[in-house]
Amino acid sequence: MKFYKNTSKISLAILAFSLTLPVFAKDVDEKLSVSNNANISIDNLRGEVVVKGTDTNEVWVVGKLDEKATDFIFKAEGDNVIIQVKMPSNMNSSFWDNDEQETDLVIEVPHGSKVQFQGVSSDITISDISNDVQARTVSGDVTVDNLAAERIDIESVSGDVMSKSLTGRIHLSTVSGDIKDTNSSGNVEYHAVSGDIKAESTAKEVVANVISGDLEINLNNVVDAELSSISGNVDAELELSDDGLLKMSTVSGNLKLALQKGVNADIRVDSHAGGRITNQLTDDKVEKAKYGPHSKLSTQTGSGSASVKMSTVSGNVKLRF
Length: 321
Known about the structure:
The chain is mostly beta strands and about 325 residues long. It is about 5% helix and about 60% strand. It has 2 domains: about 25-130, no CATH class; about 160-320, no CATH class. It has one helix at about 1-20, and strands spanning about 25-35, 40-55, 60-65, 70-75, 80-85, 105-110, 115-130, 135, 140-155, 160-175, 180-190, 195-200, 205-210, 215-230, 235-250, 255-260, 265-270, 275-280, 285-290, 295-300, 305-310, 315-320. The longest helix has 19 residues, at about 1-20. It is elongated, with a radius of gyration of 27 Å. This is DUF4097 family beta strand repeat-containing protein. Keywords: Signal.
């Protein structure tokens, strides 16, 4: 009897120890043959996913799954390909333990694929795609490079958005993260709340707005641009086309504008509550209201064919070449 009791205790101890052992993440190495313009849908809760466009007509998934993953779905339904890392439905605070193995996947897809990604605490990198791309994540960072499409839609809530060499109708958005964009073209929209935006673009049409973050932007031969902030500063350096339209506004943030030498523009600036206007473009003087803090500037460079309209409530405005 004593031996039986001791054996039972040892068995229970071994069982308890085994329950504390880590669950090793599953390796993945799977392929599917698809059309060049397949629709690729990717869903990953946490970790990192890299999507690369290739010259093959295959979708190839390589890497490791999250050790908490309950299933991995990789299937084709006609031209639609579904890639999903399924996770437990009930997740407490211990679920987000950083010591655990999270998803780490590299996914190769045909260049012409449409790519849609959805994640929560997942970083996503997408490159070398010549069709529509949509990527949304909550706390992850998004990196995109060499995309050319009718529509490119990138969003993160608290993560950063980093983009390079995008062409098409582009939408980049974040709440508390930063946006950094270089060498984009086409039509671009940038939106941030408390994050900063830094962009260099040859896009013809640009909309950029921030709430409390700063906006620093360099535009080449822009036709239509609208740049705005509430309490952040807007610093723009641009080449404005002869028939271009530029609108800039802030509430309490400062406005700085540098235009190319030889620009042909009619320029109107309004400061409504005491902000200082500095004009280094022409010899025209700032007009101050006889009563109240309002001031304004009306000036012209060259033929005045383009239009520049700037306004602020209490911020300062500076114009230069």
